[in-house]
Specification:
- Helix content is about 50%, strand content about 20%.
- With about 210 residues, it is α/β, with parallel strands linked by helices.
- The chain has two domains: about 130 residues, Nucleotidyltransferase, domain 5 (2-Layer Sandwich), CATH 3.30.420.40; about 70 residues, no CATH class.
- It has a five-stranded mixed β-sheet.
- The chain starts with a helix and ends with a helix.
C-alpha cells in the first residue's frame, strides 16, 4: 500500500498531524512551557529552525517537537517571526503568557545580550530564563581541550585520516572487509570525527577501535 515515496510521504504527514494535535492538547492544558530551538540547513541549503517545547504533564517533564520550520531571515527578528507564525498556526496566539524558559546554542542571534532572540523575548516575557544548551557548551569545552592538548589533537587527526582512507577509497574498503572476513570479526566502518558538533559523533568515531 505504501510502497512508493508519495504514499510514504502521505503516511508521514498523517502521523505528523496527529503528533502535533497531541502537542497542542498538552500546550493548552499546561500553565508554563519552555522553548528549545536549533538552526540547521537542509539538503537544498535552505535555512530551517528545529523547535521543541518542554512542559510538565502530570508532574513529569515532557518534550514535543513542534516543527522544522522555514526561516526567511537568519537574524533574531526573523526567528521571532518564525516563532510567532508557528504558534499562530498551532492556535496559540497567547503563547508568550505561558513561556518561562528558552534554550539554544550560544550564538549571538540566540543569546546576544541586546539583540538576541532571548533578549527580545524578554521585552514581552519579564520572567524568561534563558539557558545556553549544555550539549553545545560541552562541545565547546572539548574543542578547547583539543586545541590545548597536543595528544588529543593528534588522536582526532588520526581518526579523521582513518575515515578518509576508507570513505574515499573503494579498494581500501574492500581490503578492510577481506581482513575482517579472515579474522572472522564484524566489519565496523570508520566514522567521521570532523565537521560535526556533538560529542556523540566523537564517541561513534572511536567505536571501531574499542
Amino acid at each position: 500500500m505504501h510502497n512508493n515515496d508519495t504514499r510514504c510521504a502521505e503516511l508521514i504527514s498523517v502521523i505528523a498531524a496527529y503528533l502535533q494535535h497531541l502537542a497542542l492538547i498538552d500546550m493548552q492544558r499546561c500553565r508554563y512551557l519552555s522553548l528549545m530551538i536549533d538552526g540547521a540547513t537542509d539538503q537544498s541549503v535552505a535555512e530551517k529552525e528545529t523547535i521543541y517545547i518542554r512542559l510538565l504533564n502530570q508532574g513529569k517533564p515532557k518534550n514535543h517537537m513542534m516543527s522544522i520550520a522555514a526561516v526567511n531571515h537568519g537574524h533574531s527578528d526573523g526567528l521571532l517571526v518564525c516563532l510567532e507564525t508557528l504558534f499562530k498556526d498551532f492556535g496559540l496566539p497567547d503563547w508568550k503568557q505561558k513561556v518561562v524558559g528558552f534554550c539554544a546554542d550560544g550564538a549571538s542571534v540566540n543569546l546576544g545580550q541586546r539583540n538576541g532572540v532571548a533578549a527580545k523575548l524578554r521585552n514581552d516575557i519579564a520572567q524568561l530564563i534563558d539557558v545556553h544548551c549544555m550539549a553545545h557548551r560541552l562541545e565547546l569545552l572539548v574543542f578547547q581541550v583539543q586545541k590545548k592538548v597536543v595528544m588529543v589533537d593528534r588522536v582526532s587527526d588520526i581518526l579523521h585520516q582513518t575515515w578518509k582512507t576508507y570513505h574515499f577509497s573503494s579498494k581500501s574498503k574492500r581490503e578492510l572487509k577481506a581482513i575482517c572476513e579472515k579474522l572472522e570479526t564484524r566489519l565496523e566502518n570508520p566514522a567521521p570525527v570532523k565537521g560535526f558538533r556533538w560529542i556523540s559523533h566523537l564517541c561513534q568515531a572511536l567505536g571501531p577501535f574499542n
